[in-house]
Amino acid sequence: MQSFKTVQLGGPITDAFTSGWRVDDPKLARTVFGLKFKNPVGLAAGFDKDGVYYPLMAKLGFGYVELGTVTPRPQVGNPKPRLFRLPKDRALINRMGFNNAGVDALADNIERHGRPDGMILGGNIGKNKDTPNAEATTDYLICLDRLHSLVDYFAVNVSSPNTPGLRSLQAKEPLTRLLSELQARNAGYAKPRPILLKIAPDLSEGELDDIVSIAQETKLAGLISTNTTIAREPLNTDIETVSQIGNGGLSGAPVLERSTAVLAYLRKNLPAGFPIIGVGGIIDGKSALQKVAAGADLVQVYSGMVYAGPTLPAQINKALLTSMG
Q1: CB 312 within 8 A of CB 304
Q2: Tens digits of per-residue pLDDT, 8-35?
Q3: Which domains does the chain have, with CATH numbers?
Q4: CA distance linking residue 278 with residue 154, whole number of Å
Q5: Which of 3, 149, 160, 243 is catalytic?
Q6: Rounded CA gap, 222 and 280, in Å?
Q7: 3-class DSSP state for residue 214?
Q8: 84: β partners
Q9: How buried is residue 81: exposed, middle or buried, by Cβ count under 10 Å (0-12/13-18/19+)?
Q10: CA–CA dist 226, 12 (Å, integer)
């Protein structure tokens, strides 16, 4: 098993260097699924799986950070290399495989670092690779219980393409059962947390209709649209290069159109006011505004940071302010 370490971040030099990157304006504040966000720009799951870097992300001006995906037991993930850049497309392909130090390590790190500047924290939870789907609910419940007092909301990840068989949990019957059991456990706490579902961009309209139905039946607090895609079109990178990379989830600019279309479909078919977080293909202020126009209440970025750099949250927040007039 690989060694996982906690690092110390921040300090006066970091504060001075990043102070100009933050955009603080009360007009950016949002209250969504009962939580008050100082701005609607979040860091998507996958960047900080173990709760090591989120204090620094607060300094970059993010309104919230979604930690994880975390599993009950540590796992090293898929063999390397497992992350690939497609510069011509401003995209990434990854097959990380939920590499993380386990839910106890994440909990310990949150307890150690606390909440910088009142940042909202989400916990993105999954199952271990060697846990059969028939027993997956137990893994999700372990993560929910361990993190319940430490995070503000939960995101249920059944949509990563990099854990074999995981996406089959998006089918109507197993997904309804999983979410119902999570909600039942959540309701037993003095202060239940909002539970959201993160979905794939590769679902058909019929499958999206099922998601709409399940979200209402299980009283989800919101949906996250979307995860990475298994599709490989449209790409500017040559076919041979993409073929050599092999399996994995595609993220970045090429995902924008499809993920935003999924978001718009959900917004059209869900009840008015049902919260949706838009993620997928956001690389600048303009693409973030497309998510908002399609119906997103909040947005998330990850791959866009690779190409746009650490000022991306500020770019998006400035674009949002400008759009408000």
Answers
A1: yes
A2: 445 554 565 566 778 999 999 999 999 9
A3: 12-324 (3.20.20.70)
A4: 16
A5: 160
A6: 16
A7: helix
A8: 93
A9: exposed
A10: 37
**Residue 311 token pair:** 């000022």
Amino acid at residue number 82: R
160 is catalytic: yes
Q: Residue type at 91? A: A
Q: At what angle do helices 136-147 and 103-113 cross, to 10 degrees?
A: 20
Residue 154's contacts (CB-CB under 8 Å, 6 or more residues apart) are 122, 123, 124, 125, 144, 147, 182, 186, 193, 194, 195, 196
pLDDT per position as a tens digit, 182-198: 999 999 999 999 999 99
DSSP 8-state secondary structure symbol assigned to residue 164 = T
Residue 272 in tokens: 């008015």
- The tokens describing 185, both together, are 């456990």
125: which 2 tokens? 């939870």
Where is 197: in which H helix or E strand? strand 195-199
How do the residues of the chain divide into helix, strand and coil, expressed in percent and rounded to 5? 40, 20, 40
- Tokens (6 digits) for 17: 């260097």
Helix axes 172-187, 136-147, angle to 10 degrees: 30
Identify which of 137, 138, 110 has the alpha carbon closest to the alpha carbon of residue 123.
110
Q: What pLDDT shows up at residue 5?
A: 38
